[in-house]
Amino acid sequence: MTEQINGTENLNEIDVQTISVGDVVTGKVTKVEEKSVLVSIPNSKVDGIIPISELSTLHIEKAEDVVKEGEELTLEVIKVEEDAVILSKKRVDQVKAWEDLKVKFDKGQLVEAEIKDVVKGGLVVDLGVRGFVPASMVADHFVEDFSDYKGKTLTFKIVELDQEKNRLILSHRDVLLEEKEKQKAKVLDSLSEGQVLEGTVQRLTNFGAFVDLGGVDGLVHISQLSHDHVSHPSEVVQIGDKVKVKVLSVDKEKGKVSLSIKETLPGPWSTVLDSISKGAVVTGTVKRLVSFGAFVEVLPGIEGLVHISQISNKHINTPHEVLKEGQTVQVKVLDVNTDEKRISLSIKELEEQEEVVDYELPEESRGFNLGEVIGEQLKKLKS
User: Fold this and answer.
1) Which among 83, 92, 82, 8 is positioned nearest to 38, based on CA atoms?
2) Are residues 310 and 346 in the same domain?
3) CB count in 10 Å sphere of residue 312
4) Which residues sit opposite 378 in a β-bridge?
5) Do 303 and 343 share a domain, yes or no?
6) Helix (H, G, I), strand (E, B), or coil: what is residue 10?
7) Same domain for 138 and 195?
8) Of 327, 188, 167, which Cα lies nearest the Cα of 251?
9) Closest listed residue to residue 50, CA positions, set 26, 68, 75
10) With 0-12 CB in 10 A as exposed, 13-18 as middle and 19+ as buried, what is 117?
11) Is residue 258 domain-shared with residue 277, that is, in the same domain?
């Protein structure tokens, strides 16, 4: 019996000694415990054990989160004991992972990974080795709370790889920016002057509104927002508004696009004849004074010219002698030309009408004549 026992002990010893630290073996998972995994190794009389710390490069709470019973694994021997072989899945994964990542890094290829954890300063992923995504490299905009990212699978660009320091830095932001640049180039190629498109207002500035055309932001200058005077873009549009725009110009080299909302809208001149006709008397506002006359706004966005000769019955050298900008005046319409978008006005003609009224006799004096006065006097003398 003793010999048999000794024989068995010697056999086990021989089997275990054939496996050395550093060897790579294949094992089948026979049991998954909370903090370790048991593995059967071919041609070995002893079991292999994978401590939970050797299952993954990331911290895990349960072994079953990484492996399942019946799964075959490639493992590295890290310790040989009398009754067991201590194995590591993590180290094998790391070696292969570094090799694959080095190839991808050299070729500029992207990698895909699931966000395993959200930590202070960024995100953690598992690519066979621990990868870190700094907060500044997660998105192309400010993100206050990263908790929603956990569990998501994203595409990354490898920005730093150092196997000796076990350092792998990834960026999702770079991927987003590259995709945007490709989309921008594609949209720019499709744009041409005169096109009418729909876009979304992205942001407002004092000088205009930027509209997203599906990857390219075009500028609608404040002068192109409306036919009416606009002091600030917010008077016409708000962020998020869907708007129709006309392409005025495209600079593909600089990536600049000029747009107009105004040119997609019916102009005020299209209905001017509904409100103003030749001979009409209207009230307007003096908008500009020039050497040859005054421009008076008679309808929103519609200005007519009062030529200097039509400003006053008196001789004037400049319109400034009689008028000032912002002044409200009454004008008579002399002519309307919608084709040329011109209206001729007169202030003088209204002054002439007023002067005629000033010289009219009072109601009670009308019909008075000299003959009647003399007749009355003769009657008085006879009596």
Assistant:
1) 83
2) yes
3) 16
4) none
5) yes
6) helix
7) no
8) 188
9) 75
10) middle
11) no
Token reading at 7: 């024989």
- Average pLDDT, integer, range 363-367: 46
Share of the chain above pLDDT 90, in %: 66
Per-residue pLDDT tens for 304-315? 999 999 999 999
Please return the burial class of 222, using the count of CB atoms within 10 Å of its CB with bins 0-12, 13-18 and 19+: buried
**What total of structural domains would you count in the chain?**
4
Interstrand relation of 208-212 and 196-205 (parallel, antiparallel or unpaired): antiparallel
Position 279: which residue type? G
Tokens of 65: 């989160």
d(CA 94, CA 265): 63
Q: How far is CA 373 from CA 106, 287, 368, in A?
A: 122, 56, 9
CATH code at 21?
A: 2.40.50.140
Q: What is the structure's pLDDT at 61? A: 86
- The token pair at 380 is 């008085």
User: Nearest Cα to 281, choosing from 249, 240, 329?
Assistant: 329
Which tokens is 309 given? 């000769």
Distance CA 381, CA 379 (A): 6
Structural domain includes residue 101:
no
Q: How far apart are CA 277 and CA 288, in angstroms?
A: 22
- Given the structure tokens 């895990």, which residue do they identify? 60
Range list of H helices, 171-258: 173-190
Element (H, E) at 282: strand 281-290
d(CA 29, CA 48): 9
Residue-level length of the chain: 383
Q: 288 has which bridge partners?
A: 295
Range of the domain at 144: 108-176
Question: Could you tell me the pTM of the whole model?
Answer: 0.56
Structure tokens at 14: 């021989």
- Cα–Cα dist 174/155, whole Å: 10
pLDDT the model gives residue 380: 55
Here the tokens at position 185 are 């180039």
Strand locations in 104-241 (E):
110-119, 122-126, 130-134, 153-162, 167-171, 196-205, 208-212, 217-221
